[in-house]
Amino acid sequence: MSTLQTRSGRKTVEAAPSRRLMIWTAVFVVAAMLPIVAGPSYYVTVLINLLIRLPFTLSLSYVIGRLGLFTMAHSAFLGIGAYVAAILAQRYGVNPWLTLPASVAASAAVAAFIGFAVLRLKGLFLAVSTLAFALFIEVLVRQSEITGGAYGITDIPPLTIAGTPIRGILFYELALAALALTVILFWNIKNSPFGRAGTAAQDNEHAAAAAGINVARVRIAGFTLSAAVAGLSGWLYAFYHLTVNPFLFSLDLTFVALFMVLIGGLGSMVGVAIGTTLLSLGPELIGFATTQQVLASGVLVLIVVLLAPRGIGGLINEFNSRKAWRKDGDVRSSVTPAA
């Protein structure tokens, strides 16, 4: 195990990389078999929507938890990815598979452009500026003819393999593969020099700059990367639902994603994955309407903030810390010579 020390001086323990790899592998193996035991197609649909949402929330968690950038524009990047795919496939007849790099690149390019303009801001100013951008994009989409206006774009051609549409369990496995790539991406970034530079910039911007880290470049690159992953979620959304509309740019999606990240714990992939699953499957299976889901999410956030301020990820780290210290104490007591 590796031991980390927080800014408050308190030590936390993370599981060994090999153990974490085994856990993630087991999770994905079980997830791959879920559609077989899920039963009715309704539950498969719910699981697919969860898999589409997970890369989106993981990318938002990375921006806020690892870079310290409180952005309100993340749903805009998801919407851009979805609309680029829909326009190219439905309006211009581009092969749906070939729209994937275009969707990811478009979201990343817009994020890079916005990043150069607003990422030098901090705190509330950054949140307000990215919020203004998200609202501007939503209005632009509603007023544009090529995006279908308020009605959006329908009749998007589906993804196919050898002429067979990818639907149901096949699309589930595709979305699961996209999630696996997202986890591998952020996992490698976390343990890379680039990831450590982002964490250093978040903890102490001036100290990071004094150590030779180009803080602005690291933040813009991380912001752009997270937007590209959000564009991937948008691409999956477009070709699963075969329709897109301006709701993809709404603040509701951003707020619900923020709830999921807060419940899961900023920067914790495991915690955010659990939080996203709870807030996606729980209200859906209980049968809440959309407005009730937002209300239920807000209530759950209040409960978590009161009982576990660091979220589910914080609880997991705390459990690992206590387990490690207890084991360490047992070892010390067993080698202490008798008086």
Descriptive overview:
The protein has 339 residues and is mainly α. It has one domain. It is built from 13 helices and four strands. The strands form two sheets. The chain has a two-stranded antiparallel sheet with strand order 1-2. A two-stranded antiparallel ribbon has the order 3-4. A hairpin with a 2-residue loop joins strand 3 and strand 4. The longest helix is centred in the N-terminal third of the chain and has 27 residues. The radius of gyration is 21 Å and the shape is globular. The protein starts with a strand and ends with a helix. The N terminus is likely disordered.
Radius of gyration based on Cα positions: 21 Å
Largest sheet: 2 strands, antiparallel
Number of helices: 13
Sheet/helix structural class: mainly alpha
Flag low-confidence runs: 1-15
Distance between the termini: 32 Å
Helix percentage range: over 70%
Mean pLDDT: 84
Number of domains: 1
Going across the biggest sheet, name each strand in turn.
1-2
- Following the backbone from N to C, one meets helices and strands in this order, namely EEHHHHHEEHHHHHHHH
Number of strands: 4
Strand content bin: under 5%
Summarize the structure.
With 339 residues, the protein is mainly alpha-helical. Helices cover 74% and strands 4% of the residues.
Would you spell out the secondary-structure blueprint of this structure?
Elements (H helix, E strand, L loop, with lengths): L1 E4 L5 E4 L2 H22 L2 H27 L6 H18 L7 H20 L4 H21 L16 E2 L2 E2 L2 H23 L2 H11 L1 H6 L4 H27 L9 H14 L4 H18 L3 H18 L3 H25 L4
Antiparallel strand pairs: 1-2, 3-4
